[in-house]
């Protein structure tokens, strides 16, 4: 217990040095009706099949560290078939200014979960092992499927069936770029850019370019190279990108990849997340097959662990208001 307390003390100090104090001083984002007293971390916990919000300042072996959870097995709005879509959650991130959580799962599902009710406001079947999703400003959804090797566009206002699919080999990550009004999607060997035409009845993604991921002696050992996570860097016009062996910074202004200055060589990173501009960076680095019991800091000096968990991704809870006012989702 003493070692655990020391690790947590160090971690809390690191958060404080990153500029995050208590909610009373910094106005930390709330989570539904929960006023956060410390930064929170959203995790994809595959052992229990849930998406869980965890308190970063509490030992995760303490049940009080769990602040909120979405359990598809307990969601009364889902059919038995739909619950099966959400085995092995693979992505969870905030949407609609933090009023929703966007979820994908390897069982094939994509969901938009209401944080206030803890129930899904929309679900659909993307199939092909979905690994991530992005919510567009008009409420449409884009998913990427790794084994299905595709990008899929959904229009929740029109139903659960896809309105468009495009091929993308080993697709793993996707983000909406509000400034450029485009979608970025990372695959095994490329970062693809898509324009977006909203249209009342015929929304469409338009392939614009495919940028090759950096090739290194390490990446060449993997036939599919292994592009994995794609997430914005807070406070910068840039993105984190992970592959099987390295962490990169992608600059969409000149389409360049550069080694991540804070740490470049790091294998098996399933997710990377920074707490605000210049803040603490955490990664979910797989320690067993594709999961770990919790995230670690980028320099590996701080860590969280949920005993018995199989966590696939972990992200700081930091909603963005960008485009939130124009989202349209059915209840």
SSE layout:
Layout: H1 2-17, H2 23-26, E1 40-45, E2 50-55, E3 66-70, H3 80-84, E4 89-95, E5 100-105, E6 109-114, E7 119-125, E8 130-135, E9 141-145, E10 150-154, E11 162-167, E12 173-177, E13 182-186, E14 190-197, E15 204-212, E16 230-232, E17 239-242, E18 247-251, E19 256-259, E20 269-274, E21 281-285, E22 296-297, E23 311-316
Antiparallel strand pairs: 1-2, 1-23, 2-3, 4-5, 5-6, 6-7, 8-9, 9-10, 10-11, 12-13, 13-14, 14-15, 16-17, 17-18, 18-19, 20-21, 21-22
Overview in brief:
With 331 residues, this protein is mostly beta strands.
How does this model look, in words?
The chain has a single domain (2-317), classed as YVTN repeat-like/Quinoprotein amine dehydrogenase (Methylamine Dehydrogenase, Chain H), CATH 2.130.10. Helices cover 8% and strands 38% of the residues. It is built from three helices and 23 strands. It has helices at residues 2-17, 23-26, 80-84, and strands at residues 40-45, 50-55, 66-70, 89-95, 100-105, 109-114, 119-125, 130-135, 141-145, 150-154, 162-167, 173-177, 182-186, 190-197, 204-212, 230-232, 239-242, 247-251, 256-259, 269-274, 281-285, 296-297, 311-316. Strands 3-2-1-23 form a four-stranded antiparallel sheet, with no helix packed on it. The chain has a four-stranded antiparallel sheet with strand order 4-5-6-7, with no helix packed on it. Strand 4 and strand 5 (100-105) form a beta hairpin. The longest helix is centred in the first third of the chain and has 16 residues, at 2-17.
